[in-house]
Design goal:
Layout (H helix, E strand, L loop, with lengths): L1 H50 L28 H9 L5 H5 L3 H8 L2 H5 L3 H18 L1
Length: about 140
């Protein structure tokens, strides 16, 4: 009986030792892979920022389009239709948009402006902030 108990005990101790070694080995490898992955992501972000220095909005949309003109869709609440109406009205930059009054915005965008934007000044404030960001960048 002693021999069987010693054999089982030896198996358990051997299995435990193998488990501890494997756990520490894989944990170390996973940690090094995670560190390497984090470093690679930082390098990719750095390269992307160097290649494409356009400033983005909170919506993740760049402030300028491919032509280099201001992208009004970066402003929360302005989509393609409102952007088109602003361009048709002769508003092409964030600076021009930020200088409009809520009444002028309502005239340009029509009755939908009041319906969709309970806070008229939020669009104008975002346009002013984006104009300042672009001025600082240049």
């Amino acid at each position: 009986m002693h021999v069987v108990a010693m054999f089982v005990l030896g198996l358990l101790i051997g299995w435990l030792a193998e488990w501890v070694i494997d756990w520490s080995y894989w944990r170390g490898r996973i940690h090094s892979v995670a560190t390497e992955n984090r470093a690679l992501k930082e390098r990719i972000t750095t390269f992307e920022n160097q290649r494409n220095p356009r400033v983005g909005s909170a919506k993740g949309i760049p402030l300028t389009d491919k032509d280099g003109s201001d992208n009004f869709q970066a402003i929360k609440g302005i989509g393609p239709a409102f952007s088109k109406r602003l361009h048709e009205a002769g508003i092409h930059t964030f600076d021009q948009l930020s200088q409009l009054t809520p009444k002028q915005m309502e005239e340009i965008l029509g009755a939908l402006f009041k319906r969709f934007f309970s806070k008229e000044n939020s669009i104008l404030a975002q346009a002013k902030a984006f104009a300042q960001q672009k001025a600082q960048k240049n």
